[in-house]
Specification:
The structure is a homodimer. By secondary structure, chain A is an alpha+beta fold. Chain A folds into 2 domains: about 325 residues, BirA Bifunctional Protein, domain 2 (2-Layer Sandwich), CATH 3.30.930; about 90 residues, Rossmann fold (3-Layer(aba) Sandwich), CATH 3.40.50.800. Helix content of chain A is about 40%, strand content about 20%. The first copy, chain A, is built from 16 helices and 16 strands. Chain A has an 8-stranded mixed β-sheet. A 5-stranded mixed β-sheet of chain A has the order 13-12-14-15-16, sandwiched between helices. In chain A, strands 2-4-3 form a 3-stranded antiparallel β-sheet. In chain A, a hairpin with a 6-residue loop joins β9 and β10. In chain A, α1 runs antiparallel to α5, α6 runs antiparallel to α11 and α7 runs antiparallel to α8. The longest helix of chain A is centred in the first third of the chain and has 20 residues. The radius of gyration of chain A is 28 Å and the shape is elongated. The two termini of chain A are about 45 Å apart. At the A-B interface, α1, β1, β2, β3 and α4 of A face α1, β1, β2, β3 and α4 of B.
């Protein structure tokens, strides 16, 4: 036999169990999105290369999958590339269709994206993103609703999480206050590592990145901020007293916390001044969600952007969005054994037969059951009992209905419960009741 | 403002209404597949170029979208291409994962495919296919179940259809009987056009394709075959008496019709000897489904193949499958106005407010309603009534709950039904009852 076929590295096939589990995650998330009036859109896998280039930094440009032109243009530079994320196509969509949309526009989008990254554990070249955004309003109700959605999604999935929140304006205020507004990126990159490397290493990195001793000293109250959310906010107001943008960030966070009080949120929320998030289009609140009982990074993240659509010529449209990491959520649910057990029990009963007459008898029963919306299979050939039972086992079908001469005479089937091995002779009505 | 962004030609964005309608089609089809024990799989968008090349004929090879290699290999021949259909990846999947699968393996797959075809009305470069197959059994129960699925899907969608059925073995028998077995492709291509161009033109084409006068004459009883299915089958048995393979094809069709009688199918089925279907991997039954009340080609098609996995080194595994054309089904449902009206009514009620206190009051109500699984939106800013009402109109939200001082005092909302304009003051319980 020839060598087994394979698929490109970094890509995956999803079998029935994986699909059932993935659909469970997507359906749960979609169900919650819908409760808040978010509606689904889809964009093409390919975008014009100009839509994608320059939107993800130099490194991102290198990771774009480009489509070779067809025909005579094959040798020329590619005109199309595969979607790298859902955010840039979303911005493109909003600008292109702005006359047809009702603003504030609330959309969600669940589609694969492609990155020519070096594949490694948990990092794929094709993976799904699951984004929800509201664009066309600067109301902080957007932040509130996304946080409520996070709470409800993880409540339904059974995952204990903590939501970390910060505000980009506070980070800008800090950079301003220590006299290094142009160093905001260096500062955020460094303090983002506080959890991992500790305060001394962060300070060393800050010096390496060009801050002087005085500036690093001025940062210490931020790095050491502790206490309740209210205590942190109060302290911040003192620290940032000289920065208009910093105080604006504090005020926004205070308002979000007030809104959260109104709806009695029970989610763990931590004001985390070291949360920075890499993407530089964020301008207000930023979020990250971590699973409490699993060693994995962020499973959801996002924030507010004031000018995402500006890159396509429509400036000044504020929005806020988050992205659920389906692959990581899948890993957490697997690790904590939280997937519902009955996900793959699609077929309720398999008919096993041992002759043509029995097979035909089974077909009539199957039709009746399906008319009652019960999923049924008829083993396609009268063959050995063992083979038919093995099929039911492999597919985790809970019941097998065995048809023989006696059953046909009495208008019954012999129903075997696969988990217990118990058999009983039942009529069609009795079978419906059991299933 | 800059030029509006656009998407590559032949691709499409799907807005909320289109998505709701597409999901309605997919969910209907999935629901029926599940009743028969078919389970979903997904394969990567990219396949190794060797998996795709040579599987769709010379023309198909030209229409493959190839992915440019990254890094130093950029100038070399592409190693990956985008999925061109779901059949070849399915065959690759079965061979690659054969040790993990329960046979007969019943799978369905709903994913986009890409073809570098010249875009035109109804023909896209990215479109969804919706395939269902059972592989690993040559039982004609497979044919029966697929026909039952066709009946149930179109019954649920409300589309009147006719299923055309034929058998490749009959076509082979005909070629054999007229003494031109090597001309089977020419014969099928020509007689496939009978409906469109008439018998004289078909005969002319047969001559052009190298059949002699005697052979064309021998074909006439086939072209002129009429009467009931039983009459056609009886006539065929006489015509094909000298061809073993031809008689096998007739016997297979007879058995399928007997099975259909057992389950009392009400679907229109026509034995159509001019049905050929282009793809040359079919070896047994072939099907096509046409909508009776719309001028459009085939909306579903498929057939039995005895050696699909042979191309990947696993010969002799028989299967049968069909593919639902989602885009064409969409067009038929649109043309006949058959989409359910309430598809886009996601949000049940919009809260309209005119001040901060009212907004906060609305947030509490919204939380209560969502806890009862009712989809609710709160307009994110206290702004002009007209704007908030316009938003409800645009999103086709059936009710607006208006909150003012009086409502807050009496713990009610003023509920406006948008279709009638009727307003009434209601409590939370009353609101739940109405929704």
């Amino acid at each position: 036999m020839a060598q087994k076929p394979s698929i490109p590295k970094g890509t995956r096939d999803f079998g029935q169990l994986e699909m059932a589990r993935r659909n469970y995650i997507f359906d749960t998330i979609k169900g919650v999105f819908s409760l808040y009036g978010f509606q689904q859109i889809e964009t093409p896998a390919m975008e014009n290369i100009g839509t994608l280039m320059g939107k993800y930094g130099e490194e991102g440009d290198k990771l774009l999958f480009r489509i070779q032109n067809s025909g005579e243009k094959a040798a020329l530079a590619p005109e199309k590339g595969l979607r790298y994320d859902l955010t840039v196509p979303f911005a493109r969509y909003v600008v292109q269709h702005r006359e047809e949309l009702a603003f504030p526009f609330k959309r969600f989008q669940i589609q694969p994206v492609w990155r020519a990254d070096r594949p490694q554990k948990g990092r794929y070249r094709e993976f799904y993103q699951c984004d929800v955004d509201v664009i066309g309003s600067d109301s902080l109700l957007g932040e509130l609703e996304l946080i409520q959605i996070v709470e409800e999604v993880y409540r339904r999935l059974g995952i204990n999480v903590c939501l970390h929140i910060n505000n980009r304006k506070i980070l800008a205020g800090i950079a301003e206050i220590i006299g290094a507004p142009e160093k905001i990126v260096d500062i955020t990159v460094a303090i983002d590592k506080l959890d991992k490397i500790g305060v001394d290493a962060v300070n060393a990195e800050l010096v390496e990145r060009g801050l002087n001793e005085e500036q690093v000293k001025a940062l210490q109250p931020i790095l050491n901020l502790s206490g309740t959310t209210q205590e942190k906010l109060t302290a911040l107001k003192t620290i940032l007293a000289g920065s208009e943008i910093g105080l604006k960030g504090v005020a926004e966070l205070e308002e979000v916390f007030q809104l959260l009080d109104i709806v009695n949120l029970t989610l763990n929320i931590e004001l985390d001044l070291c949360l920075a998030r890499g993407l530089n289009y964020y301008t207000g609140a930023i979020f990250e969600v971590k699973a409490l009982d699993a060693q994995i990074g962020s499973i959801t993240g996002g924030g507010r952007y004031d000018n995402l659509t500006g890159i396509f010529g429509l400036p000044g449209v504020s929005g806020v969005g988050i992205s659920f990491g389906a692959d990581r959520i899948y890993d957490v649910l697997t690790e904590l054994d939280l997937f519902p057990k009955e996900l793959l029990t699609a077929t309720q009963v398999l008919f096993a037969t041992f002759g043509d007459a029995e097979l035909k008898y089974a077909l009539k029963w199957a039709k009746e059951l399906r008319a009652r919306n019960i999923a049924v299979e008829v083993y396609p050939e009268p063959t050995k009992m063992k083979k038919q039972m093995g099929y039911a086992d492999d597919k985790k079908i809970p019941f097998v209905a065995i048809v023989g001469g006696n059953e046909m005479e009495t208008n019954t089937v012999m129903l075997k419960e696969m988990s217990s091995g118990v058999q009983q002779q039942v009529t069609l009505d009795e079978l419906c009741t059991i299933l």
